[in-house]
Structure formats: structure tokens, C-alpha cells
Amino acid sequence: MNPGIQKVEALDAGHFVRVEWEDGSESRYPCVWLRDNCQCPHCFLRSARARRLVFEDLDVNIVVKEVALADRKKVSITWPDEHASEYEAEWLKKRCFSEEARAVMREDLFLPERQYWGSDLQLPKMPFEEVMYNDESAYKWLRTLKKVGIVLLTGAAARQGELVKLGHRIGFLRLTFYGPTWQVQDKADANNVAYTTGKLCFHTDYPVLQHPPGVQLLHCIKQTAAGGESEVVDGFNVSNKLKEQNPQAYQILSSTAVDYTDVGVDYCDFAVQNKQRIIDVDSRGQAVRINYNNATRDTVFDIPAEKVRPFYAALKEFNDLLNSTEHKFTYKLEPGDIVTFDNWRVLHGRQSYPSGSEVTRHLEGAYADWDVVMSRLRLLRKRVLNRD
């Protein structure tokens, strides 16, 4: 994109700068924002891509003294204190304040597109080795993970340690009280319901943390012959359904703070306590994170007694939707499979399997934060698509 500028002028007594582009469109830039984002070496450290200007030195009522156009590719501004700033046309065009331009920038930075699914899910699959050593494949993996919420990687070695390699491919794994990685298998005196052979109801992991892990990785090392099937459901899809059929239930689950607890010993001893809303929403009321784990939901419930039954009724309706055949997808991991999924969106469960004298089912698990995953996704996107 090499936009050209047709005309530039000050507006509103110098509080705005209007840019008329060669394509006929126009942009209006607040002068306080322009001064705050001066790109000169005094105000901006280019090597760190970080602002050097101290906010105390910014006049929020600043106006331009002079504004000029240089060879249709640059806007030059002189400020009342004679400080000079220059802004490249392409830089300005990307940061236009119009709704259309801001939507383009949101898409470019955060890739918000979602593909909802139910029992009709076509589980995306990719070879583990390709993801590890091919940037295009790694980009496709993370892009699909962001869009669909789940991707199955196949062909990893059926031994511990493969998730550590995958973590290095992303950047690094998230350390929790259960360790850098953790072993899902039947254990005596289990300190987590996952470490039993029983059925696991649909849940997201670790809502007891203030910032639950964004991405979960589960590597199948050994699989039981009978039972042990995995189940997943698109929590955002189900939340939308709940909002449509019972707005009041949606409002209750998106506004009620639920107590979660987790106490025990693993990587170290821990006593974690937190409050989460079952459905976290953004300013538009859209679900951005599901925080639901019935096993670690506390007996303590810090709400007025008269609000308890309506909450349970709302949660029951949500839970029934999660478990409907229309919404859930069932599959069985094979040794060497690694399922990667969005722990803020996709609820997962497991069917029970027979217990025995030996370990018949063994998964290794790990977490990564969305900040780390999105960082790698942006870097891969730039490399693969040759984006600036």
C-alpha cells in the first residue's frame, strides 16, 4: 500500500489535521494524538518501537502551528514550541480513525474471525513434523487454532517430551502448580479428578486462576482399548445459543461471580482461590472466555441466598446445551496424536474407562498463554505472507 496525499489542512482551530487522499477518501487526526505519536528520535526509540515522550510533557489541548505536505508522501507539522514532526502517508493511512480503517487494523492485529461448530465439526488435522519444521504449516496451525479453536496434530513420537518441543516452537509453555507439563493417568490418591478413570464432564481448565491458560495441549502416549473417548464443545457457539433462547440466563451467567478453589500439592503446594464469571463478555456483550469447571467450583458461593436458585437454573440450561448431541463432538486420541485447543473457548471432557493394575491410558498435558501464541502467529504471518 503506497497511498498518496492530495491535500492536508488544519481544522477546528488547529485541534485536528484533515488529510485528503488521492483515492478521494479523507482522514481526520486529533492533534493531541499526532503530537503524542511524533516519530522523531527525541520522541520515539525506533530500535525498540517504543515511545520516549514523557506523558507529563504532553499538552492535551495542543494545536498545530503549521502543517504542510511534502511530495504527497509525508505530512510535516510544526508545533507551538517549534518542535517538528513528520508522518509518512502509509503510516497515517493505516491509523485512520474511521470505523472501516479501525476494523481492518483489528483484523490485522488480532485475527478475530471465528468459525463456530457443533457435532458437525470437521476436526482440522496436520502432521506434527510439518508444524515443527515448516513455517507455512506452523502458520496454518495457529491460524486455524485461532479461528476454529481446535487442531489435531498427528505423528508425534509416543513418549514424553514432545510438548516441550512444541512449546519451543511457539515460544514457551505456561508453568502452573501442576508443573511445566503434567501426566494425565490413573493415580492413587489423585489430586485432580483428571487423574482418575472416571468420566470428566465438559469444563475449561484452571478457572481458579485469575488468568486461566489460553491454549491447552494434550499428547496421547498410551490409549486404553475400551472407553476414554474425548469430547469437545464450542463454548462460544453454545453461549450464543443460550443468549438467543434465554437472555436472562445469559445475563446471570455473564454477571455472577462464581467461587473456584484448588488446594493440594504437586509441582509445589498450593491453595488457590478465585472468582470468575461463567461467561466473560466484552463491552458489546459477546463471549470472550468461558470459565466453567464443575469439579473446582467451590462450596462457598458469595451471593445473596435468593439469587442462588436462579443461578443454578441458568447454569443447568447452559450445561444441557453443552451436552446436547447437536453441539458436542466425540473422537478418540491415538498414540502420537496431540490435540491443541482454545481453553477460553472449547470445553473438553472424557468418557470413563476401566481401571486396572497397570496404567492403560496416558496423556501428557501442557499449557500456553494466548499472548505467546498470538505473538508467534503474527511473526509467522509476517514471514509467510511477507507482511510489513
Outline the structure in words.
The chain is of the alpha+beta class. The chain folds into two domains: 5-110, NE0471 N-terminal domain-like (2-Layer Sandwich); 125-385, Clavaminate synthase-like (Double-stranded beta-helix, 4-Layer Sandwich), CATH 3.60.130.10. It has helices at 31-36, 89-94, 99-110, 128-133, 135-148, 162-170, 235-245, 247-253, 308-322, 370-385, and strands at 5-11, 16-21, 26-30, 44-45, 50-51, 66-70, 74-78, 84-88, 125-127, 150-154, 182-184, 200-203, 215-222, 230-234, 257-265, 269-277, 279-281, 287-290, 328-331, 338-342, 346-350, 362-368. It has a six-stranded mixed β-sheet. Strand 1 and strand 2 form a beta hairpin. It is elongated, with a radius of gyration of 26 Å. Residues 13-92 form the Gamma-butyrobetaine hydroxylase-like N-terminal domain. Belongs to the gamma-BBH/TMLD family. GO terms for molecular function: gamma-butyrobetaine dioxygenase activity; iron ion binding. InterPro entries: AlphaKG_dependent_hydroxylases (IPR050411), GBBH-like (IPR012775), GBBH-like_N (IPR010376), GBBH-like_N_sf (IPR038492), TauD-like_sf (IPR042098), TauD/TfdA-like (IPR003819). It catalyses: 4-(trimethylamino)butanoate + 2-oxoglutarate + O2 = carnitine + succinate + CO2.
